[in-house]
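Run log, item B.
One chain of 109 residues. Sequence copied directly from the ordering sheet:
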Amino acid sequence: MVAFFSIAILTVLLGIPVMLLIVLANALFKGCLGEKFISTDENGIVEKNTKETVVVPWRKVKLLAYTPDHLFIQISRIKYIVISKRDFGNEYEFTKYFSELVRLCSGYS
């Protein structure tokens, strides 16, 4: 309840859209925010957190993108898997991983 109240205050103060408030509140209560373990194989992405394990087949990946700090894997209009680039040992490891994701997703675009 405190988390929802805090998000509501941020929404009012910062003018964050109500839809984002709903998505964030839902994520907090489902355990979607916080530490996750993500692995990939030929079948798709496996995302594990403290409350659930989700398997996302490659055909469901809508978009792969990255910024200087993060990798974004879009699963639906409002669901993204976000991976910090710090989770990779160096830029080479990140580039290798991103290239592999592009290869695995390319059969479904």
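Observations after the first pass:
- Residues 10 and 16 are 7 Å apart (CA to CA).
- The chain has three helices and six strands.
Flagged for discussion on Thursday.
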